[in-house]
Design goal:
This protein is of the alpha+beta class and 213 residues long. It has a domain of 128 residues: Cupredoxins -  blue copper proteins (Immunoglobulin-like). It is built from three helices and nine strands; from the N terminus they run αββββαβαββββ. The protein has a five-stranded mixed sheet with strand order 3-9-8-5-6, with no helix packed on it. It has a four-stranded mixed sheet with strand order 1-2-4-7, with no helix packed on it. The longest helix has 20 residues.
């Protein structure tokens, strides 16, 4: 009886050893865990470049133009020289080219009266190229000239009794001279003042400034 019992015990030991060496089988129904996604090889997008700020001119990189300056204009823009003054007198010229030879007259403040002499150095007669000298304020010049033209040649192109006229010579032709004397006090308030020729169409070119200094 002992021998069969010993064989049975040996068989049990062998069976247990065989069970210990076998690994448990994988469950075919188990869900496999997902594998991690491969890293992207494309470069990351770069942010859009910011354009340069626009200037005040409205375009990139453009320079603003320099500000215009407001420099005052000279009173005498004719480019002609000033009249020569001596002993409260001056002599100026008019010619057949419809021009005075000076662009300004400066009357000394020490003078109580002042005399202007006009020499017509041309050859044409009064009817074709007459000249005179009329003095008024700059603001009155246009009206005085227009009314003088309407007055006609018989009035030397000066309206009779025109209080806007400070002084005026008669009209002269080529080779003739004329003059006028007036109180300097008439130029010492208001202004600015001008002298011009009132023959029709001449004032646009034959004019200048007159002042007390």
């Amino acid at each position: 009886m002992k021998t069969p019992i010993a064989l049975l015990a040996a068989a049990c030991v062998l069976s247990l050893a065989a069970c210990g060496n076998n690994e448990p089988a994988m469950d075919s129904t188990a869900t496999p865990s997902p594998s991690p996604a491969p890293a992207s090889t494309e470069p990351a997008p770069t942010p859009a470049e910011t354009p340069p700020a626009a200037t005040d001119a409205g375009t990139y990189g453009s320079d603003m133009p320099p500000a215009a300056s407001d420099a005052p204009a000279a009173a005498d823009t004719s480019g002609k020289p000033a009249a020569m003054v001596e002993n409260c007198k001056t002599t100026i010229e008019g010619n057949d080219a419809m021009q005075y030879n000076v662009g300004s007259i400066a009357v000394p403040s020490s003078c109580s009266e002042f005399t202007i002499t006009l020499n017509h150095v041309g050859k044409l007669p009064i009817a074709a190229m007459g000249h005179n000298v009329v003095i008024s304020s700059q603001s009155d010049m246009q009206g005085v000239n227009a009314d003088g033209i309407a007055a006609g040649a018989g009035a030397h192109y000066i309206k009779a009794g025109d209080t806007r006229v400070i002084a005026a010579t008669e009209m002269v032709g080529g080779g003739q001279s004329t003059s006028v004397t007036f109180p300097v006090a008439k130029l010492q308030s208001g202004g600015p003042y001008v002298f011009f020729c009132s023959f029709p169409g001449h004032a646009a070119m034959m004019k200048g400034t007159i002042s007390v200094g």
